[in-house]
Amino acid sequence: MLTSDLAISFRRGDKIFPFLIKNGAEGFLRDAENLIEIFEEAEGKTRGALEAELEEYVGTGTDYRILRGMIKLLTDRCEFETHAPADPLEIRQKVFLEARKLHPVLPDSEARKTILESAADEFDTDADSLFSGLYADLAAQQKLISFKPIEAEDLLNLYNLSQAQAIFYRCVEMKIRVAPSSAQEYRAIFGWIKHFGLIHSVVGNAANGYEITLTGAASLFHRSQKYGVRMAVFLPVLLLCKNWKMRAEINDKRGTLFYELSSEQTELISNRFDEPEYVNPDLEKLLKNWEKLGSDWRLKENRKVIDLGRTAFIPDLVIISPDAREVYLDVLGFWTPKSLQKRLEEFSSAGYKKFIIAASHELRGSREEPLWESPNVIFYKTKIEPRVLIEMAEKLLYVMQN
Fold first, then answer.
1. Rounded to the nearest 10 degrees, how much is the dihedral formed by the CA atoms of 61, 63, 66, 67?
2. Helix crossing, 64-75 with 47-58: angle to 10°?
3. pTM of the model as a whole
4. What is the rounded CA–CA span in Å between residue 237 and residue 45?
5. Is the pLDDT of residue 105 over 80?
6. What does DSSP assign to residue 368?
7. To 5 degrees, how large is the angle CA 386–CA 388–CA 394?
8. DSSP of 17-68, one letter per residue?
9. For residue range 294-353, what is the model confidence (pLDDT) as tens digits?
10. Is pLDDT above 60 for 229?
């Protein structure tokens, strides 16, 4: 994705729009082709050499910011590697220690040759290789070992998508209205929200559709940058869903602005398969530890959207007792005490008790500590203990039965 300094947007009234390259823009298409060619031909060269070629191409023209945006996206598709006969830090330490014995050392002097040869013997290499590895850990000296190819038109589509994504770095709140849809389509959009661990609340029901409110990065006081990236990465998968309209409130230096999209738009093309996969590591760890436990209690993936009347509940897992009774488990992504308290109030209003919420201290998006306790909530530091969940589920089922 683009960094904030490369993001370009404009306003009309109280609306904000990302700068988008129009389809068929021959000049930018030609630029994309040329930049891709520079990257393809740079394999095996140093990052410094690549950057020098790119700097020469960009020059000081009026489109330099757009070109630098394309370069950022192409650089993200590169893999660089440090090439040296040993750890460059160890090489420098050895060379500098040897140099102290013959100080001062002039370029192209016999003393310099002696120092490099003496140090090279210790690392079982030659003087030239040792010298080339002396500062190999500097970014400019790293070598490009692979570049993931892309077509010029796809690069322009990726650029447009990245400009839209950058708007969400400053998002205060996003509202998504989902029209009445099939259960499969509901699960898709709710599933992606859960997948990226976004703080959300839901109003509505399956028959009439839902309004989903996502907390934006600009609303958090803690870990907002990390959350903002997660929210931006959500956009490509939202574009793959159906029957929705979105309105995001943006905290902009020009004032409060709004960015609107719908599933009917055609300007932005999703690049879902170019985005990094995110899997909740706490959830994975819990599933593995549950298998090791060997309990009569089972833990399964949940595929239901549970209707709570005015809102909906989309838990991650379902805990099943030996006598087949169920308690649903929701492992939160990012959260705040305020958002969690609001969620508990929704369950209380619906009279729903068959749930456990697991909240990680690491993903708390506010410096505030929760000042309350709930039999339905477990806070954890590094992992969720299966035995603790079973104990909680037993107590909840006992209370509901009695």
1. -40
2. 160
3. 0.81
4. 35
5. no
6. P
7. 105
8. EE--PPTT-HHHHHHHHHHHHHHHHTTTSBHHHHHHHHHHHHTT-TTHHHHH
9. 899 999 988 888 888 888 898 999 999 999 999 999 999 899 999 999 999 999 999 999
10. yes
